[in-house]
Structure to design on (259 residues):
C-alpha cells in the first residue's frame, strides 16, 4: 500500500485567486515527494466541532521547495475556516490519498484531453506538467477564470464559459467541437453532469477515458463506505457493485463506474 503521511504543516502562502477561490501552498516534503497527479489530501479543521477532514485535490507539487498547492472554493464552514488561515499558520493534513491519473496512458506520441470543470480544474495543473504526450487542456468555468496561466504553460489551453465571457460559450464539449479537437485519451475532473457527458462523448468517439470523482467523503481512507459509487464489477472489499471513491478512486476508468 502506498505510504501516506499525517502532518502538521506550515502554510507558505494563501491567496484569493478568484471570487471565493483560494490557493494555498503548504510546506511538506514527504507528501510533495510521494504524490502523483490526481491524488488528494484530507485537511483537518482546527475546530473540534468538525471532526471529519475535507478532501481537497493536490493542484501542484514543488519538490524543490518541498511544497504542495491546493486550490479550493469556499463551500461551507470547513473551507471557510481554511480560507482564514494566513502564511505561517499550521494546518493538519493527511496524504497523498487515493489513486491518481494513469501517467503511463499519457505518454509521448498520444494526444491527451485534460478536461476540468469548475473546482475540478486544479488537479489538471500538475497532470499537465507531468503528462508527456500532446496536452490539450479544456477548462470549463461559469464565468470568472482561474489557473489559466499555469494551465497554458504546460499545454494548449481552450476555455469554455457558461456566460460566454471568454472562449466558447457553453460546455467543455461545445469547446472541443467548436475547435475541432481530437484525442487518444481523456482525463477529466469536475461536476457529475459534466463527467457523465464526457463519458458518453468518449464512448461515441471510441476514446479511452479516465475520470476523477469529487463526491462527499467522511473518513477519506476507505474505512466507512460513505463515498461509494456504483461500479460495473463486484468490489473485492464489500462484494457488491460498489467502489470507494477515496480508496479505489478518485480516478477511475470511466467504463468501470456508473454515473
Ligand atoms: C477527492 C476530492 C477532491 C476534491 N478536491 C477539491 C478541490 O481541489 N477544490 C475544492 O474546492 N473542492 C474539492 N473537493 C470538494 C471539497 O471536499 C468540499 O467542497 C468540501 O469538503 C466542503 O467542505 P465544507 O466544510 O466547506 O462544506 P460543507 O459544510 O461540508 O458543505 C457545504 C456544501 O457543499 C456540499 N459539498 C460538500 N462536499 C461536497 C463534494 N465533495 N462535492 C459536492 N458538494 C459537496 C454540501 O452538500 C453542502 O451543500 C474535493 C472533493 C473530493 C471528494
Ligand atoms: S470516505 Fe470513508 S470509505 Fe471513503
Amino acid at each position: 500500500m502506498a505510504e501516506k503521511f499525517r502532518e502538521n504543516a506550515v502554510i507558505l502562502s494563501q491567496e484569493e485567486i478568484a471570487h471565493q477561490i483560494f490557493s494555498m501552498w503548504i510546506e511538506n516534503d514527504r507528501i510533495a515527494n510521494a504524490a502523483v497527479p490526481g491524488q488528494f489530501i484530507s485537511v483537518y479543521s482546527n475546530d473540534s466541532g468538525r471532526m471529519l477532514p475535507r478532501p481537497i485535490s493536490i493542484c501542484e507539487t514543488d519538490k524543490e521547495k518541498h511544497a504542495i498547492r491546493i486550490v479550493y472554493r469556499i463551500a461551507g464552514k470547513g473551507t471557510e475556516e481554511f480560507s482564514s488561515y494566513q502564511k505561517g499558520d499550521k494546518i493538519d493534513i493527511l496524504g497523498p490519498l487515493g489513486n491518481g491519473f494513469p501517467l503511463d496512458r499519457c505518454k509521448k506520441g498520444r494526444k491527451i484531453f485534460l478536461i476540468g470543470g469548475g473546482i475540478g480544474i486544479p488537479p489538471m495543473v500538475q497532470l499537465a506538467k507531468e503528462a508527456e504526450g500532446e496536452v490539450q487542456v479544456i477548462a470549463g468555468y461559469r464565468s470568472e477564470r482561474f489557473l489559466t496561466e499555469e494551465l497554458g504553460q504546460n499545454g494548449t489551453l481552450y476555455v469554455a464559459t457558461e456566460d460566454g465571457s471568454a472562449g466558447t460559450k457553453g460546455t467543455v464539449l461545445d469547446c472541443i467541437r467548436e475547435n475541432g479537437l481530437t484525442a487518444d485519451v481523456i482525463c477529466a475532473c469536475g461536476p457529475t453532469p459534466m463527467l457523465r457527458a464526457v463519458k458518453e462523448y468518449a464512448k461515441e468517439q471510441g476514446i479511452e477515458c479516465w475520470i476523477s470523482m469529487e463526491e462527499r467523503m467522511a473518513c477519506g481512507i476507505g474505512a466507512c463506505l460513505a463515498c461509494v459509487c456504483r461500479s460495473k464489477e463486484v468490489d473485492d472489499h464489500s462484494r457488491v457493485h460498489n467502489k470507494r471513491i477515496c480508496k479505489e478512486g478518485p480516478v477511475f476508468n470511466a467504463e468501470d463506474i456508473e454515473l
About this structure: Residues 217-220, 222-227, 244, 246 surround FE2/S2 (inorganic) cluster (ligand 2) (CB under 6 Å). The longest helix spans residues 192-205. DSSP finds six helices and 16 strands in the chain. The chain has three domains: 5-97, 103-213, 215-259.
